[in-house]
Write a structure and sequence with these properties.
Number of helices: 6
CATH architecture of the largest domain: 3-Layer(aba) Sandwich
Structural class: mainly beta
Strand order of the largest sheet: 29-28-27-26-30-31
Organism: Channa striata
InterPro entries: DUF4174, HYR_dom, SRPX-like, Sushi/SCR/CCP_sf, Sushi_SCR_CCP_dom
Keywords: Angiogenesis, Cell adhesion, Cytoplasm, Disulfide bond, Repeat, Secreted, Signal, Sushi, Synapse
Radius of gyration: 54 Å
Shape: elongated
Pfam families: DUF4174, HYR, Sushi
Largest sheet: 6 strands, mixed
Mean pLDDT: 86
Main location: other
Number of strands: 31
Distance between the termini: 120 Å
Length: about 450
């Protein structure tokens, strides 16, 4: 603590007229900051430095005999098995204190984990230089290091050993399975109980399935299922069995002349359905589809595709349109008379494109002239006057100028043309907007048919 000084104050009072002088005094203790006089020659300016379980190496600007003089710098280091906590380097300051403190803490290694079916004993616990020896239960043997030593940096030598048994576990697989594929499928769902394994040393075993899980769909043919089991020592045992799936099949169906088939699943397996379809200008006669039975035979009889018969002597437009519903598209072509130049040009292009129209399931209806000489026809077949008038009213087709109306298979007005249309442009529109995916595939297959 800095020294205290006693300060005495004298106060003088002067009394007017009498010339009397009064002296009054009191004492006050005041604390002052004490700044020692710097003395670089004092060999004991700072207290002596010591480090338990360590070593202090000091260097003084005054020489080796001045270990604590002002400006002395000391290096701190710990003995083996100890770790320095604090400053590794300190120096003596003007206030007679060192610039920091430090101490040596005894080092230790982390606690070693227990090993299954074994134990260890240590000479000095988990302190530096302690050695831990490992032993295994009867029936197990050490794999790895037999002992580990705590090093001075706080880490153990070697790696943690394990105790393993030498006898592999035992496992038995279920018997092989056989099953027919499900209807309409090429697979069958097969289930079984997973096998159980035993081991003389371990109660908990790691059983691994190699192959498909039970309760899933297995493909046609032989599917090998294998189970592997490992004990904690990685001794291995295995077993396997076969899951065989058979697909019942019918003889392959032949496509009808002027038609084709679309089949579900694989085409001729049990439960597969094959549907008959006819090319443009032909319609189906007989069953529309057949199913492959469990007996490996098709139900029903074969169907055929016959030329489409259009009854032109119907009495109304709906009766005519019903014959085309979902079968054909209609291109209704109208002109004031047969000599109309637009009609003649369009007629020439239509005749040349007749094959392409059939591939796209398009039928042409012509409406020519005005009453009483008005004519309606589908190729050479003439239409009733009431049918002609009904078509004009339903689709608002004028008699005074050339026009064409394109209808889809549902009888909906899809496009109108007021000038002659080249077949390439007409076909491009139909291919882009009216054909479904199946029709596009069939068109690509037979595109060269018209050449």
């Amino acid at each position: 603590m800095p020294p205290r000084r006693t300060l005495t104050l004298f106060i003088l009072f002067f009394t007017a007229g009498s010339g009397t002088i009064v002296y009054e005094s009191y004492n006050e203790f005041a604390e002052e900051e004490h700044t020692p006089q710097l003395d670089y020659k004092d060999p004991y300016w700072c207290h002596s430095v010591g480090l338990t379980n360590g070593e202090v190496t000091c260097h003084s600007p005054r020489g080796g005999a001045y270990r604590s003089t002002l400006g002395t710098r000391c290096q701190m280091s710990c003995d083996r098995g100890y770790r320095l906590v604090g400053k590794s380097s300190i120096h003596c300051l003007a206030n007679r204190r060192w610039s920091g403190t430090a101490y040596c803490r005894k080092m230790r290694c982390h606690v070693l984990p227990l090993i299954p079916h074994g134990r260890y004993t240590c000479t000095q616990g988990f302190m530096v230089d302690s050695r831990c020896d490992f032993t295994c239960d009867p029936g197990y043997r050490i794999e790895g290091e037999h002992s580990r030593t705590c090093q001075h940096r706080g880490s153990w030598t070697g790696a943690q050993p394990v105790c393993s048994d030498t006898e592999p576990p035992k496992i038995k697989c279920p018997p092989s399975r056989f099953k027919f594929a499900d209807p309409g499928q090429l697979t069958a769902r097969v289930t079984w109980d997973p096998p159980k394994a035993k081991d003389t040393a371990d109660k908990s075993l790691d059983i691994i399935l190699v192959g498909q899980e039970p309760g899933t769909d297995f493909k046609e043919g032989a599917n090998i299922i294998q189970y592997k089991v490992y004990d904690q020592a990685r001794n291995k045992a295995a077993c396997k069995f076969i899951v065989r799936v058979e697909v019942k099949r019918c003889p392959e169906l032949s496509a009808p002349m002027h038609g084709f088939l679309t089949c579900s699943s694989d085409g001729n397996n049990y439960g597969a359905t094959c549907e008959y379809h006819c090319d443009g200008g032909y319609e189906l006669r007989g069953v529309s589809s057949r199913v492959c039975q469990f007996s490996r035979n098709w139900d029903g009889n074969s169907a055929e595709c016959v030329s489409m018969e259009i009854k032109s002597d119907v009495k109304s437009a709906p009766a005519l349109l019903d014959q085309f519903y979902e079968k054909r598209r209609l291109l209704i072509m109208s002109a004031p008379n047969i000599s109309d130049p637009d009609y003649q040009l369009q007629n020439i292009m239509i005749q040349k494109a007749d094959c392409g129209l059939d591939l796209r399931h398009v039928t042409v209806i012509e409406l020519l002239g005005s009453p009483p000489r008005e004519t309606g026809r589908i190729k050479e077949s003439l239409l009733n006057s009431e049918v002609i008038e009904g078509l004009r009213q339903v689709f608002r087709i004028s008699r005074s100028y050339f026009s064409m109306v394109l209808l889809d298979k549902l009888g909906l007005d899809r496009e109108r043309f007021i000038t002659p249309m080249a077949s390439d442009e007409l076909f491009s529109y139909i291919d882009a907007f009216l054909l479904d995916e199946e029709e596009r595939e069939r068109l690509e297959l037979h595109r060269d048919f018209c050449d």
